[in-house]
Specification:
With 1152 residues, the chain is mainly alpha-helical. 62% of the residues lie in helices and 6% in strands. The protein has 46 helices and 14 strands. The strands form 3 sheets. It has a 6-stranded mixed sheet, with helices on both faces. A 5-stranded mixed sheet has the order 3-2-1-4-5, sandwiched between helices. The radius of gyration is 37 Å and the shape is elongated.
């Protein structure tokens, strides 16, 4: 039987062998990690029969081996329990070892490595100070004994560890002197190694690596190119052939890549960038064998940052860079999960947050996504919260947060206008602290100080114009500082120059406004000089600086205003054209630039044709930014920015004499943009699949990914940590893939117009086959009606339907809405006056043009004749004004055709549609549903009808006393041919309670749906316009945003007997058809009956009763092709019974 000594010796030997194998292994996979666990098990076995009092040396050996195993695991896997176990053992060993001995120094070196890692994870300065205290005492003890060999061996090791601790001190204390001392100490370590013949050892290589990192940091601080050159030479000249473990090799490689990246930022170039990216890729290949390495988060994010250096290269796939940075972020979370219960609250997580924030910020710049900027701001804010104000990183991270906050404030997305107080407080913290260590941090702070001064200039321009020049002067001084501080980063310097030139142009214009022409010209010259520097700095760099042409145009316009020389104006327009007609640049900048170019063009020549081309180009370009990857609120926000520009483009085109068909094509693309996106999501790919199956499959996959809700996308991303999952989790990457497939499809013969809005001549004739379609175009320059009929497309000028007159009449319409209930007589008078003007200015000329083309009679039709159909495109002011009710009214009498007065309803049955494409879609849907109904009829199964009544609505007044009776009457009419489901409140009168879930379930299976309830048109956000159900207070209304995501495949008619169901109060979104009626259409319902203002509760049952009776026509099934005509007759019944147009006028039909 083995003695305890033999037993311990055997198991210790096995543990040591396993440790050596683990150290040299090239993988962190489970089988290799098992080596370390087996080694620890051997030590447990060794300790099981070892008595510390009898075998103290063996216990020391076990402790040392255990500490070494846990340290190796810590360095390879990064888990805190290993750090705790290793540190406990090393501190026990140090207590028993002789200070300044070789064993003591090596043990201390290991402990210092652990303290360094603890500092990296926690950013706690105490670990750095303890390291310096320990290593300082050890260095002081060297040479105090007689063992010169031990001294020679210990000194390089201790000096190397001291150098690393000083680097950490320079970081956590923002101390340039500590960094200088670190370099001196590390050079001394190299000299000591040479004296002790340790050159070429692994310890010497790691010390040289640490010196290179210190030199790189000093370069970032001071901008001395010799430092970065020396740092690179350390790696390039390394021919030591030292035997490094795989872990040490990866660490050295990461340090080298940091140096190379800093060198590239100083001297950027395409070839060197390709080399850098190739080296990052090789490092990632090595990382595959060390997939749990603590270096993994930094390497992933650094690789993504290198890819993002190509961000504005047209061939660059931004999604790959973002996925790499996101992978590093998640790896950082995983790494820190054992260091803190909430990894995101661990200070060591700050670098990963910062890199992720930068990535999101770039997504904002690329896709103009305010939500991406919001995520970036959140990342920067959390990062700054985890960063000590004493840290060298604080200033740069603070500037990043302030910059994101500034951009958020300027965007004003979703009402988000953060104040300046927090930014000023953060800037004050930075300015009261030490000067930032890094030059780029100084530049970033100077930049934000400049923008703060600009903000003050903007806020005082109206109240204290005499102070504006002072603020601009301060801003320019700060931006000049930013240029000078960007000495280590040429790309940052380029952007700083661009900003400086823009502010100089702003000051030139400010001087011009105050008639200080000489000062204005001086600023123009300065701005042109900066632009020359900018052009020279951009040579050979892949960087998007098209926006410099905006500044050049501004300068030339100021020169034109001073000198009056038209060549300056032409130069300005030419410069702006390079921006708005180019493929690069932020689209909102191109939008504003095009507006300036058009205004200046009008100022010098009045050329409508050129203005139309400018607006058309920019509007269509800007629409590309309304991406399928955007959330719906983002799309709405972007369309508000587009505002009236699309209308201006159409107006200029008509004034320039463009063919009406071409104007109509542009209108279809730049109006009802949300509709176009929805139609693209629903479009059939049958033809594409028949001819290009693989292409169709790729398209369908990309479209399905884009159609995911944000919640579904987030859940999918959380469950898939693979590279493919990382890519798919980025909606922007998915949108890029979708657009790439779309472009490839459009290159195929016969698919050139795939999913493009707009109708060919043949399709135009088809869409007007059941009646003419009328679209109005109003702008500050013209007003026309574009009429599509079987006779062709014509543009009818409407001089009295101008933008200005419509704005005046809109105030009258609001007056009608305000007095409708308290003074019905005055309300009727105001409304009838409005409708009379609407006939004279718009509807009358359209009817006359159609009569002239032979589409309708010149005189009112007999009351018993069947009227032709007509569709009004509900965009612009037609989305506000009830043109279907326009006519010549006598305020004292009800209108009668026999009295010689004319009205739209005397000539046509009116319907509305958001666009021609939406009308074509509604008709296709009707045809499909009719075919399905025939199939269902053969099964003898009754179609379904869903009727909803809300007599009482929680916390909403007044109660709808007639809602229950309205639904009961509808049920009585429909139950002969339909299986009727009634949902109502109070519940005892109906089959179920109208919560949103059962209502949506009913909508998925019914053919007819009827709502007698309260409706709300949200005054600020059309996506929140809604039908109120029982659970509306819990945020479960049928909102526009919710309905747009639905797909009702069998519902052929929805009757919205509720207030304001076809109302959008946001005048900047008049072109979009964003209301509850439009949302039901987007969900696939081809016929929707809605209201343009509040209806009378007591009258609504009669309208519904007459409607359904007319639709049945004596049968038991509704004739869905006659919905518009049946509504027309029901409403005319109200009119002939003496009701005012204020009562019957709000009822309208949308769809086929």
């Amino acid at each position: 039987m083995e003695t305890p000594e033999e037993h311990a010796r055997t198991h210790c030997a096995r543990a040591d062998t396993l440790l050596q194998r683990y150290t040299k292994s090239h993988s962190d996979h489970v089988q290799n990690e098992q080596l370390s666990l087996d080694a620890l098990a051997e030590l447990d076995a060794a300790a099981s029969r070892t008595n510390p009092s009898e075998l103290p040396e063996r216990i020391t050996q076990i402790t040392a081996l255990s500490a070494s195993i846990h340290l190796e695991r810590l360095l390879r896997i990064g888990l805190k329990p290993d750090a705790d176990a290793a540190e406990l053992g090393l501190r026990a060993l140090l207590r028993d070892q002789q200070p300044a001995s070789a064993s003591y120094c090596l043990t201390l070196r290991k402990l210092l490595m652990i303290l360094h890692i603890r500092y990296e994870r926690t950013a706690d300065r105490q670990f750095v100070l303890e390291s310096l205290d320990l290593v300082g005492s050890a260095i002081a003890g060297v040479g105090q004994d007689d063992d010169d060999d031990d001294d020679a061996a210990c000194l390089p090791v201790l000096l190397g560890a001291c150098g690393q601790a000083l680097i950490d001190l320079s970081e956590c204390a923002n101390s340039p002197s500590a960094l200088e001392m670190a370099i001196d100490v590390l050079r001394a370590a190299a000299d000591a190694a040479q004296s002790s013949n340790a050159v070429g050892s692994s310890e010497w290589v790691l010390t040289q690596q640490t010196l290179a990192e210190a030199l790189r940091r000093r370069f970032e601080a001071m901008g001395d190119e010799r430092d970065i050159a020396e740092a690179q030479a350390i790696f390039d000249d390394d021919d030591s052939n030292a035997s490094l473990s795989p872990r040490e090799t990866l660490s050295c490689l990461m340090a080298r890549l940091r140096v190379l990246h800093s060198r590239w930022r100083l001297c950027p170039g395409g070839a060197s960038l390709k080399t850098l990216i190739m080296e990052y890729s090789q490092a990632n290949q090595l990382l595959l064998l060390n997939d749990r390495s603590p270096i993994r988060p930094e390497l992933f994010q650094a690789t993504g940052a290198a890819f993002n250096e190509m961000f504005f290269d047209p061939n660059h796939k931004r999604g790959v860079a973002f996925a790499s940075i996101l992978g590093g972020y998640r790896a950082g979370e995983e790494l820190l999960s054992t260091w803190d219960k909430k990894p995101a609250d661990c200070p060591g997580f700050a670098p990963y947050l910062f890199a992720m924030g930068r990535a999101w910020e770039l997504q904002f710049h690329a896709y103009y996504s305010p939500e991406a900027l919001g995520v970036a701001y959140g990342m920067f804010s959390q990062c700054l919260r985890l960063t000590s104000p004493d840290s060298s990183h604080y200033a740069l991270r603070a500037a990043a947060m302030i910059g994101a906050q500034r951009m958020k404030r300027d965007l004003g997305f979703a009402g988000d206008k953060p104040g300046d107080e927090s930014a000023i407080k953060t800037l004050t913290t930075v300015l009261l602290g030490k000067l930032p260590l890094e030059a780029k941090a100084k530049a970033a702070v100077a930049t934000e100080l400049g923008y703060t001064a600009l903000r003050q200039h903007d806020s005082t321009a109206a109240t204290a114009p005499q102070k504006t020049s002072s603020w601009l002067d301060q801003a320019i001084r700060h931006f000049r500082k930013a240029v000078s501080f960007s000495c280590t980063d040429k790309l940052s310097q380029v952007y700083a120059l661009k900003t400086l030139a823009g502010v100089l142009a702003t000051r030139a214009n400010s001087h011009l406004q105050r008639d200080l022409k000489e000062l204005a010209l001086t600023d123009c010259d300065d701005a042109l000089h900066v632009l020359e520097r900018l052009a020279a700095a951009c040579q050979g760099i892949k960087v998007n600086l098209q926006e410099r042409y905006d500044t050049l145009g501004d300068v030339r316009e100021v020169q034109f205003s001073i000198h009056g020389d038209q060549r300056y104006a032409e130069n300005a327009i030419e410069a702006w054209e390079k921006l708005y007609a180019g493929k690069d640049g932020v689209s909102i900048s191109r939008l504003m630039t095009a507006t300036k170019a058009s205004a200046l063009q009008q100022r010098i020549s009045g050329d409508h044709g050129r203005a139309a081309r400018v607006y058309r180009s920019v509007v269509l370009t800007f629409l590309q930014v309304v991406s399928p990857s955007d959330t719906r609120p983002e799309q709405i926000w972007k369309l508000r920015l587009l505002g009236r520009l699309s209308v201006r483009a159409l107006g200029e085109a008509l004034m320039a004499g463009w063919p009406a068909e071409e104007v109509l094509e542009v209108a279809e693309r730049c109006r009802s943009v949300i509709w176009n996106l929805v139609l693209g999501r629903k479009a059939s790919v049958a033809d594409l699949e028949a001819r290009h199956r693989a292409l169709a499959a790729r398209f369908v996959k990309a479209r399905a990914l884009l159609a995911r809700s944000p919640k579904a996308a987030a859940e999918a991303a959380a469950g898939d940590r693979s590279w493919g999952g990382l890519l798919a989790s980025n909606q922007f990457h998915t949108a890029d893939e979708y657009n790439a497939v779309l472009a490839e499809i459009r290159q195929q013969p016969g698919f050139e117009d795939f999913l493009l809005p707009g109708l060919s001549a043949e399709r135009l004739l088809s869409v007007s086959s059941e009646g003419p379609v009328v679209m109005f175009v109003q702008s500050n320059v013209s007003s026309h009606a574009v009429v599509v009929s079987q006779a062709g497309v014509l543009a009818e000028p409407l001089p009295d339907f101008s933008q200005k007159r419509c704005e005046e009449r809109y105030r009258h319409f609001n007056t009608f809405l305000e007095v409708r209930q308290k003074d019905p007589a005055r309300a009727a008078e105001v409304l009838e006056d409005l409708l009379h003007w609407l006939w004279d200015a718009a509807a009358g000329p359209v009817v006359s043009a159609l009569a002239k083309a032979g589409i309708c009679r010149r005189d009112p039709q007999p009351t018993d004749s069947r009227l032709p159909r007509l569709w009004w495109v509900s965009s612009g002011w037609i989305s506000v004004f009830p043109i279907h009710a326009a006519g010549e009214y006598n305020n004292s009498k009800k209108p009668k055709p026999s009295e010689g007065r004319r009205h739209v309803f005397d000539f046509f049955v009116s319907s509305y549609t958001p666009s021609l494409g939406a009308l074509a879609y509604a008709r296709r849907t009707m045809h499909r549903m009719s075919s399905n109904t025939v199939s269902a009829t053969n099964t003898n199964r009754l179609p379904e009808a869903a009727l909803v009544s809300m007599r009482f609505t929680p916390d909403v007044q007044p109660d709808l006393e007639h809602a229950a009776g309205e639904v009961r009457e509808a049920e009585a009419i429909l139950r002969r041919g339909y299986k009727v489901t009634t949902l109502g409140h109070p519940r005892e009168e109906f089959q179920g309670v109208p919560y949103r879930k059962p209502v949506v379930q009913a909508l998925r299976t019914c053919e007819v749906a009827h709502f007698a309830c309260h409706g709300v048109a949200d005054p600020l956000e059309p996506l929140r316009s809604r039908l109120l159900l029982c659970d509306w207070k819990g945020g479960r209304s049928l909102t526009v945003g919710f309905l747009m995501r639905m797909e009702f495949k069998s519902c052929r008619l929805v009757n919205l007997s509720a207030c304001d169901m076809a109302v959008n109060r946001d005048l900047l979104l008049r072109e979009e058809g964003l209301h509850v009626a439009g949302a039901f259409q987007m969900a696939g319902v081809p016929n929707v009956l809605a209201t343009m203002w509040p209806i009378v509760d007591a009258v609504a049952p009669q309208v519904s009763r007459d409607l359904y009776s007319e639709l049945l026509g004596g049968g038991d099934r509704l004739r869905f092709t006659d919905v518009a005509e049946s509504l027309h007759k029901a409403v005319m019944g109200l009119m002939t019974s003496g009701e005012s147009v204020a009562v019957w006028g709000p009822y309208v039909h949308f769809g086929a």
